[in-house]
Amino acid sequence: MTSSSQSRTNYGRRFFWLALAIVVAIGAYTAGWFYAAGVVVDEVKGAVAALNGNGRRASCEEPQARGYPFRIGVFCRSVMFEDAREGVGFQARSFRSAAQVYQPWRIVGELDGPARLEAPGLSALALDWSALRASLRLASPLPERLSVESRGLNVRLDEPGEALPALFQADSLEAHLRPVGEDLDLAVRFSGLRPDAALTEGVALPPLAGLVDLSLAGGALDGGLDGDLRGRSGTLRNLTVSTESGAGVTLSGPVSVDENGLIDAELQIVVREPLALAKILGDLAPHARREIELSAAAIAAMDGNAGMPLRVVKGEASLGFIPLGTVPPL
C-alpha cells in the first residue's frame, strides 16, 4: 500500500516538474520572440530614418512586428520612397514580410497595390496587381537569390483626373536574380502579356508568353543592373517570345554593348511558324512588310527550326546573308 502511494507521489512530482519546465520554456521563448521583434522594428525605423535627408524621403507607416509564435516579420500600413534629385519615387499600400524563426535567412514578402512609380525619363506610372510576392535568401556578401512574382499585373500612365487605358497587362510575370561567382544570372518569365494598341501603332497583338535567361558578366561585383547596359557583356542563354498559336522566336548566344550603346552579338535564332510571325511583324511595320515577308519565306525555306546565325555588328543586324536593318543604340 505504501509502495503504491509513493509511486503515485513520484509520478505526480515528475508531471509537475515537466509542466513547470514547459511553462518556463514557453515563457522564455515568448520573451525572446518579443525582444527580437522589438529589435527588428527598431532596425526598420533606423533604416528608414537613414534614408531621409539630402532630397530623399522614405516612410514605413506604423511599423509592427508580427508572426508569433513561429514566424517573425515586419508589417507597414504603407510604404514610400522618393529621391527628388534622381527623379525616383515609389509608393504603395501595405507591406508584409515574414521569416521562419528556425530559418531567418529566408525572407518572404507581400505588397498590396495600387502603387505609383516615377523614374528618370519616364512618365509617372500607376501599377496594380492581384498578387505581388517576393522571396529573398540572405547570404554573405550578397543575397543568394532574389525572386519576385506578380499575378494580374496592370500598368498604365498616372494622369490625375483621367482614366487612361493600360499600357500593358500580364497574367503572370516573375523575375529571379542570383550571383554566380563574379557574374549575375537573371531570368524573367511572363505569360498573357497584352500591350495596349497605342504602343503598337494601333495593332492589337495576341497575348504573348516569353522567357529571358541571361548571365551578366561581372554583374555580381557592382550590385547588378543599374539601368545602364553600356559597356556590359553577357550570354543570352534563352530569349523566347511566342504567341498562343505557337508562332515565335528564340535567340541565344553572346551579346555585348559598347560605350556608345551599339550592340555586337553572335546569336543562334530559331523561328517557329515564320509566315504567321511575318504577318504580325508586317502589321507592326507596314512600311517594311515586303522585306519581312521575303525574309520569312527565306527562313521557311531554310528550315528556321534548325537554327540559323543572327549576327549584329555595331548595331547592323543580318540573318545569314539577309540584311535585317539597324538596331538603335541602347
Assign the structural class, choosing from mainly alpha, mainly beta, alpha/beta, alpha+beta, or little secondary structure. Answer: alpha+beta
Radius of gyration: 28 Å
Individual helix count: 3
The geometry reads as elongated
How would you characterize the largest beta sheet?
Answer: 20 strands, antiparallel
**Helical residue percent?**
10-25%
Our measurement of the CA-to-CA distance between the termini, rounded to an integer number of angstroms, reads 94 Å
Strand coverage percent: over 45%
Number of strands: 20
* Whole-number mean pLDDT: 87
Poorly predicted runs are none
Give the SSE order as H and E letters. Answer: HEEEEEEEEEEEEEEEEEHHEEE
Structure description:
- By secondary structure, this protein is α+β, with helices and mostly antiparallel strands.
- Helix content is 22%, strand content 45%.
- It has helices at 2-51, 274-284, 289-301, and strands at residues 56-60, 64-66, 71-76, 79-83, 88-92, 95-100, 103-111, 115-118, 125-128, 131-137, 145-157, 166-180, 183-195, 208-216, 233-243, 248-257, 263-272, 308-313, 316-319, 322-326.
- The protein has a 20-stranded antiparallel β-sheet that branches.
- Helix 2 (274-284) packs antiparallel against helix 3.
- The longest helix has 50 residues, at 2-51.
